[in-house]
Structure formats: C-alpha cells, structure tokens
Design brief:
The chain is built from 22 helices and 20 strands. By secondary structure, the protein is of the alpha/beta class. Strand 4 and strand 5 form a beta hairpin.
Length: 667
C-alpha cells in the first residue's frame, strides 16, 4: 500500500534524530530495542483512531492493533487464547478487579515490570471466571444498550475497560513484550536515562516563534498521519479524519515529549507531574491553592471517582440524589446510577440540546428546599460542558449560581469542551471537572480530575493510590502537558473561532445535501450558534446510519462515527423511539447481540481540520444521497458487488500491512 512521502520518511527521520540525540550512539541492545519501540508506536500513530466505535480505515486499523496486543500478552504468558481473555487496566482498577477473581484464575503483568512507565496492567483471566453483574467501574463502552431504568452490559473485556482505553500505550506495551522475547526480559531496565529539564521537555519545539492562527497552521503540518493514503472504491485517497469527538490524533511536538519522557530518571518525574498540574491550573482557571488536580486514565475513571466519593456519604439524615440531563454520555450517567441508586434526576433538553434553566431551578428547589421527595437531596449536578452528539455547550456561567443557591455541587464533564473552548473553573464556580488527554491531542492514556479541595470523600491512603496510579503513566501526563501548552499558545478563543468557521461552512454545505436531516442547531446565524462546538449529527431516510458511514469511507476515505455514541437516551429521544419500541430493542438485542440499532452519523472537527476536509465531506454526501435514489439493474448490482468484494480485499491488505508495520521487526 502506497503512502505519502511524509509517511514513508517520517519514522526514519525520527530514528535519525534519536540516533544522534545527546550524543548517544545506538550501539547496544537497549538502545536498539527502544528505537524499534519508537518506530512501532509512531507507525501506530499514523493510523490512530478510537477503537471499535468508529468507521473508516484508522478505526479499523487501531482496533486490530489493540486486539492484537491481547494476543501478544497471552502468547508471552504461554496461555491458551480459547481459555483466557486479556483486560487492560490502570493500576488502581487492577486491584479492584482482582479482588473479585478467584486465586489461580488469572495472571497479570505490568508495564512497570517491563521497565516502561506506561501505566498499564494486563490481566489474563479465565473466561469462566469473569465477574457477573455490574462492573465496578462503568461508563462509555461498558454497556451495549441503556434505558432510563435498565442496562444491558457489554460482554468480554469491554465490560471491564470503561471509557476509551489507553490505546497507544497498550500497543506500545504489546510491542515491548515482543522485544523482551528478542532482547531479554530486562532490556528496557538497562536503557540509559535521558535527563531533560522541564523547559526542554514541555516548552521547547520548532514552533516557539509562532502563536495564534499562525501556530495552528504550522502545527497542522506536523500532524502524524497527515495525508496518509488509504484505499477506496474510487482509488487511493488521503484519509480525512472527521471523528475528533471520539479521539484526537497527535502532532510531532507532542509525540516528541511523550517518547522523551519515557526515559526520564525517577527524580525528574515528580517535577513533570507538578509542572503539568500547573499548566492545567493556568489554562483551566483552577488555582492550585483551591483545587486538587488528579491524573487518572480517562474521563470515565475521573467521574467514577466522584461518584464513589458521593456513595460514601455519612450523612444519615439525607439520601444523595444526582441531577443530570438527557444530553449525557454514558460516562456521566452510569456511574451516578451506582452511587445514588434510584435517585437519579434527569432534565430534558430542547430541540437544539439546551437545558431549561427554569426547570433546573425547579428541580433543585423541590428536592433541596421544599423537600418534596422525602430525605432525598440533590448533592451533585453533573452536566456535560459540550454534548458529544449535538455539540451544544451548557451555559455553565448561568447554571452554576443556580446549583450553588440550593447547596449542590457542580461537576462538568469536560471531555468534549476542553480542547475546543475556554474553561474557567474558579470564575464559573465549577466544583469538579473531568476530561481526557486523548480528546486533547495527547492520546497516551491520561485523564484528569480537578476537584475543589476538601470535596472528595476518599481516605488519605486511597487518594495516594489514586494519584500514584495516574502518575505512573508519566508519558501520558507529559504529553498532555505539551498539548495544553500548545493550545494555550494558540489561544482557546482562536481555536473556538477557527472551528466555528469550519462548522458554519459545514452546516451551510450539508443543508443543501438532498434528503439529509441535521439534528440540533442547524442555522449558523442562530443566536445560539456561539454555544456550539464543531459536532454535527445527521441521518438520511434512504441510507441506514451504519451503511452511510461505511460508504463515506468506502468512497471518500472519510472517518466518522455512527450509532448511539454512548448517549443512548438522547439518540432515542432525537429519533422518537417510544417506550414500546425501546422494549422491543431490548428483547432483540438480548437474543441477537450483533443487531444494528437505530442511530445517527456524527462529524466532529478539531485543530487538524481544514476547509478542504469540509469540501470533501459535502461532495461525498451529495454523491451518496443522490446515488441512493437510483436503483441499479441486475448487471449493475453484480458489478457493484464485485467492486465491493475487491475493496474488502484491499482493505484487509491495508489493515494487515498496518499491523505488520507495527508489530513486525524493522530489519
């Protein structure tokens, strides 16, 4: 499979730079092993996307790379793949899962044992020994179907890997195990440290002289995987990533920080942690003297920590309730169900996806002032900063005073907002903020929880375990810091303005596509448009959502997301799926788990995207919707079927080539 010149030479350029870096010569096994590891991770980043949950070439390849790592673990441990499955976990969640397993039913290995600070534990569990019932940590990806009163949990590893997993770190871990077999089990422990200072690690790069729009434009040119050529039914084309809400790719300066941080001496790692906390504090307006900043594995784990804290309330006079909205992602819904039992209050939203502030206040007054619901009190209002489906941004500045007026605390799920719009925690009196680095151009397995001091109800030793679990992934922490430094230099107001310009262009183009129905804010001239990020969802009556997404990558090389987007209740509301049909879905999915449910296609923009990407999107959708009206004759159907069969072969070859590039050894 052909690639662009950048793709052909980028890895070798990186290797050449590393060969001479700090005068170190690659003349021993440890250096050769680490260079090979870097080459493989870089190759994985060239086709990076969220796993299992998107359409397009990158999602397909990343899913195969991720699943291949499970097989590598089992092979390394000498275990039968028919008898065992592998679950990838953070150090904290590992202890919780193992406590539910019978002795002798599992084996585990950590990245720390391997000699790499990736924050990964691989647990190989006998399939028959997997715990039944609800997972200890829940959220995105753990549930197959969600309704207001019931949940169908996923099966296999997905049930125990809540939220987006540390995909790149897992792939790196898998490749490292292969390298151990080749070079020896202690090879990475023999790797010499590279003691960079904080300034060089986080603040130095080739674009220091730029800021604002100019920096954004130069940064785009360093996108890893930029212009990667992929097969389509219409020949080879550059891949167009329009799935930034699921996960974001990364850029060369962030990758450099990640790879360099893996070789830092222990004494330097705490300096990195402290500096990245300071960067988070400044960018998000959360003074360190007033807020605790805790690194986790992702947004889901961060929210689960707050829900667990709430569940430990010792107040005997009240029962905790949590108020969320219909907008919420599973990661800001399912954890609260576990903490507050049946005391989950859900606010409706209007047709554009906004919460009614009068209804918000009425609910808080009923529970916390008028006591109309017995001992139940709304302790936390947990709302998304921006919807991952409609792109609408809650007006936190107006919501916060209402929440605090009635004695509740405010948690903002910032997964979709931190990379796209300015957040000011102290100014808006946000008590908790959760977000993920993989949605902020640093896809190396780090999440963040920022909490007002004194609010988390965890014991000192538990907090220490939580903190050490997240900080073990020093590469992810450092990469997040670099990503936030770059965003700060661009300016969040600039990011928002540039992405709004693209969103406006996309809405104008999509509004002219025949038979396409857009949900949420459709008019760029709407007074609410400024409260929208670059997320657009749509459907067409002529093509099912999964088929439309499939055809977008088959014919246009476009990667998007389709389905329910882990926001099942909102999607059912948008598509008018009534309670009767909802119960039918429940029965059908129980009998046939692979059944495709109703959903929508989502386009989501990021710093990498340009006007040319929007032009490709609109052109492809125009052609697909127009062709859907034309019914092919017998010969045409046969020709289409043959072309699709041939394309599937090309796609399989493309995927296998990508997997080989990562896991095979460079000779």
């Amino acid at each position: 499979m052909k690639t662009t010149k950048q793709t052909e030479y980028a890895s070798s350029d990186v290797a050449q730079t590393q060969d001479t870096e700090n005068g170190i010569q690659k003349n021993n096994g440890a250096e050769r092993a680490f260079t090979e590891l870097e080459r493989s991770v870089y190759a994985a980043l060239e086709t990076y996307a969220n796993v299992h949950r998107g359409s397009g070439h990158n999602s397909l390849v990343s899913s195969q790379l991720y699943e291949h790592a499970r097989g590598v673990v089992l092979e390394y441990m000498g275990l039968n793949k028919d008898k065992y499955i592998v679950i990838f976990s953070s150090p904290k969640r590992t202890s919780e899962l193992i406590s539910l397993l019978k002795p002798g039913s599992y084996q585990s290995i950590t990245s720390r044992e391997v000699g790499l600070p990736l924050g990964i534990t691989a647990i190989a569990v006998e399939k028959k020994a997997l715990p039944k019932g609800s997972p200890t940590e829940c959220g995105g990806g753990t549930a197959r179907l969600v309704a207001a009163g019931w949940i169908i949990w996923n099966t296999g590893p997905d049930k125990f890997e809540a939220g987006t997993p540390p995909i790149v770190n897992v792939i790196a871990f898998g490749k490292a195990l292969l390298l151990l077999k080749r070079y020896g089990k202690d090879i990475f422990k023999k790797l010499p440290n590279n003691d960079l200072g904080i300034t060089e690690l986080l603040y130095k790069d080739d674009m220091e002289q730029y800021s604002g729009v100019e920096l954004m434009e130069h940064l785009r040119k360093t996108l890893i995987g930029r212009g990667f050529i992929v097969p389509t039914l219409e020949g080879e084309k550059p891949f167009v990533n329009l799935d930034n809400s699921a996960s974001t790719p990364t850029f060369q300066p962030i990758w450099n920080t990640f790879r360099q941080s893996l070789r830092l001496p222990e004494r330097r790692k705490q300096d990195v942690v402290n500096e990245v906390k300071a960067v988070c504090s400044e960018l998000l307006g959360a003074p360190l003297e007033k807020y605790d900043i805790i690194f986790t594995k992702n947004t889901t784990e961060s929210i689960n920590l707050v829900s667990e804290s709430l569940g430990r309330s010792t107040d005997k006079d009240t029962e905790p309730a949590v108020l969320i909205s219909l907008l919420e992602h599973s990661s800001n819904d399912l954890p609260w169900r576990m903490a507050s039992k049946k005391s989950l209050v859900r606010l409706p939203v209007d047709s554009e996806g906004f919460v009614n502030l009068v209804e918000l206040e009425n609910s808080l007054r009923e529970y916390n002032q008028d006591h109309k619901h017995g001992k139940k009190r709304i302790k936390i209002v947990a709302l998304s900063g921006a919807s991952n489906v409609l792109g609408t941004c809650n007006d936190i500045e107006k919501i916060s005073p209402i929440v605090h007026k009635y004695g509740a605390k405010l948690l903002v799920d910032g997964a979709q907002v931190v990379a796209h719009k300015k957040v000011e925690m102290e100014k808006d009196e946000i008590d908790f903020l959760a977000f993920s680095a993989h949605k902020v151009y640093a896809p190396f397995g780090t999440g963040v929880l920022i909490a007002r001091k004194g609010l988390l109800n965890h014991k000192a030793d538990e907090l220490k375990q939580i903190q050490s679990s997240g900080e073990e992934n020093i590469g992810g922490v450092a990469a997040l810091g670099k990503a936030l430094v770059l965003l700060r230099r661009i300016g969040m107001d600039v990011v928002h303005e540039e992405e709004q310009a693209l969103t406006r262009l996309a809405l104008e183009g999509l509004s002219k596509v025949p038979h396409l129905k857009i949900f949420g804010i459709k008019d760029p001239n709407s007074s609410q448009f400024d409260k929208k990020i670059g997320v657009i969802v749509f459907e067409t009556k002529d093509i099912l959502h999964n088929k439309l997404a499939e055809e977008m990558f088959q014919k246009g090389g476009i990667g998007v997301r389709y389905g329910c987007h882990c926001s099942h209740l909102l999607i059912k509301h948008l598509l008018d799926i009534n309670p009767v049909l909802e119960q039918v879905q429940r029965v059908v999915l129980t009998v046939s788990p692979k059944t495709q449910l109703p959903g929508v296609v989502r386009v989501s923009l990021g710093v990498e995207n340009t006007k040319e990407d929007i032009d490709v999107l609109v052109d492809v959708l125009n052609r697909l919707t127009s062709q859907a009206k034309v019914k092919p004759n017998g010969d045409e159907k046969k020709a289409i079927a043959e072309a699709e069969t041939e394309f599937q072969k090309e796609l399989e070859e493309f995927s296998q080539t990508a997997v080989h590039r990562v896991y095979a050894y460079a000779e």
